[in-house]
Amino acid sequence: MQKKLSIKIYFSDIFNVSPNIISEYGAFNISLINDLPLFIDPFLIFNSDDEKLKILHKEIIKYVVFLKSKSNEKITDGLIKHWYYFPEVKQNWFGFCKNGNGGNGLAGKFAQSLKHGLSGIFKDFGEESIGGSHIGKLSLVKEGVGKDNISDFTCNLIKGFLAEYTSELARRCCINQPAASCRLAA
Fold first, then answer.
1. N or C, which end of the chain has less CB nearby within 10 Å?
2. Is position 172 within any domain?
């Protein structure tokens, strides 16, 4: 009798949670081996009727307006890195990376282009009279900025929300389980 080989790939496999629970919660059963070609679409946040997501969108716009307010100032390289760089958030396992989850994110050239764009072509960002403010416009600041990069940008700005969303899923999965058997609590 052959023993069935079981490779643990997905969140549900590793944390011993039914994929149905994850799906019913509205989360995605991510691979914890490699990035998946999935992206956080800021248009879904922008167009949502969900009050939490509307607030989240306002906070995203508020941060970009902050960046715009600094775009005409001469600031240090350290502040540019701190404010204008948007590394890939490895913990979500979304994006493009063949091995692991260490994608490129948005760094130096994007940061300089964003700073320049917010003082030029997007100087009205946050105050548009037509179409409203949306971070998808920022894909126009530099050639080669696509859905993966905008997803990295968005993910950086909503990390707190994603952490709370995930921790609530973990709490729900661990209800009625002894602490020693709840792998999500560890």
1. N
2. no
- First vs last C-alpha separation in the chain: 35
20 and 48 both lie in a single domain: no
Q: 154, 60 in Cβ contact below 8 A?
A: yes
Neighbours of 100 (CB within 10 A): 11
Residue 178 covered by a domain: no
Has residue 185 got a pLDDT over 50?
no
Q: Are residues 106 and 27 in the same domain?
A: no
Give the integer Cα–Cα distance in Å for 58 and 63. Answer: 9
* Residue 142 to residue 7: CA distance in whole angstroms: 41
Helix H or strand E segment including 2? none
Q: Among the residues of the chain, which ranges form H helices?
A: 11-15, 19-25, 42-46, 51-70, 77-84, 108-118, 147-157, 159-174
Residue 94 sits in which domain range? 37-166
**CA-wise closest residue to 46 among 59, 27, 28:** 59
Query: DSSP secondary structure string, 36-49?
Result: BS----HHHHHT--
The gap from C-alpha 23 to its chain's centroid, in whole angstroms, comes to 19
